[in-house]
Design goal:
By secondary structure, this protein is α+β, with helices and mostly antiparallel strands. Helices cover about 35% and strands about 25% of the residues. The strands form 6 sheets. It has a 6-stranded mixed β-sheet, sandwiched between helices. It starts with a helix and ends in an 11-residue tail after the last strand.
Length: about 350
């Protein structure tokens, strides 16, 4: 049994008694269950694990080499072919990915069903399977993390005071591409001085001078994402920056220390927050402590204060507490880690010592 067949079998086993077949349209879920890397594909999965894959003529050759279930090449909407397969399989309860299908697509699918058949909304079924990575997925994430870290070092060698945020972000993306990345995992964040107080600042025309520089970067390599945030101080760091940096680093290490199988993601978040509270900075921490990553840059589980997901060995997550002070700047430190049987492995090799350039 191939990896994809095994995944489809696990997905089918998760149907329970809610539905008899699942229509999968989310591109990352389709890729996970079939290996297909194109932009237009869907999967009809039956309870017994049998599956039919739909795509258009552009991917006739590619699908033959990537997909190991029955393939139907469709001219026009894929849902029309799916309706044919639904009728052929004589199933009445068809699950659909409610977070992936537009209302118009839903209406088109529903209107074509035979009498007595019904669509059952499903959320997160395949995504929950994707939370725990196998050895190959972990190796791909690690390779992405390593090249992403290398890209930062190469970009910093070309850094010059007075560069714009956009120029430095472009240099980071360029180095990641040269190292084999398919592209950035998200819009690279480069935020200088007080703009670092914006957690998701967009690089702009602002010139990078003396002071705080926040870099949040990631890349897709072999289909899998990496994510890292590092701080650089241009010039000599002042006492306020050093105190804040120390507090964030302590919070990040406390969260990492809390990671092990069976621990809730909320407990990991609380470990970071309680540390920042000791430094009087808990109100400046305005986002969750982290998130899962893999085929997407943001996947389940979420590492937030109210989240109750129990960590399992094989989960790949980020740990990224931060503080943001309007008019001054911000500090975030982020690693990608994998949960192990006894704790976690930090994949990110880049030093977290306070860095001045």
């Amino acid at each position: 049994m191939s990896v994809e067949q095994e995944r489809r079998a696990r997905a089918a086993a998760a149907f329970g008694d809610r539905f008899d077949a699942l229509y999968v349209t989310g591109s990352h879920n389709v890729r996970y269950l079939t290996g297909f890397t194109g932009s237009n594909g869907a999967l009809f999965l039956l309870r017994d694990g049998r599956a039919v894959f739909f795509t258009d003529p552009r991917y006739t050759v590619a699908s033959k080499s990537q997909v190991n279930c029955r393939i139907v090449i469709v001219r026009g909407p894929l849902a029309k072919a799916a309706l044919t397969e639904i009728a052929r399989a004589r199933v009445l309860r068809i699950g659909f990915e409610q977070d992936q299908l537009t209302f118009a697509q839903f209406e088109g699918l529903k209107s074509g069903l035979s009498l007595g058949a019904d669509l059952i909304p499903v959320s997160g079924l395949v995504e929950r399977l994707r939370m725990v990575k196998d050895a190959d997925e972990t190796a791909r994430i690690k390779a992405s993390v390593l090249s992403n870290s290398r890209a930062l070092e190469l970009a910093l060698k070309r850094f010059k005071t007075g560069m714009t945020e956009s120029d430095f972000a472009a240099e980071i993306d360029h180095q990641n591409r040269k190292l084999g990345a398919e592209g950035p995992a998200f819009d690279t964040i480069v935020a200088a001085a007080e703009r670092a107080a914006l957690p998701h600042s967009q690089p702009g025309a602002a010139k990078i001078g003396a002071g705080i520089l926040l870099v949040d970067m990631g890349a897709f390599r072999s289909g899998y994402a990496s994510d890292m945030t590092r701080m650089v101080y241009v010039g000599r760091a002042d006492a306020k920056y050093k105190r804040a940096y120390k507090a964030v680093l302590e919070a990040q290490l406390a969260a990492i220390d809390a990671i092990r199988p069976g621990v809730s993601t909320g407990a990991v978040d609380r470990a970071a927050r309680s540390t920042l509270k000791k430094h009087g900075l808990e109100k400046e921490f305005v986002h969750s402590t982290g998130h899962g990553l893999g085929l997407e840059i943001h996947e389940m589980p979420r590492i937030g204060r109210k989240d109750k997901t129990k960590l399992e060995a094989g989960m790949a997550i980020t740990v990224e507490p931060g503080v943001y002070i309007e008019g001054w700047g911000g500090i975030r430190i982020e690693d990608t880690v994998v949960v192990t049987r006894t704790g976690c492995e930090i994949l990110t090799p880049t030093s977290k010592e306070l860095r001045e350039i």
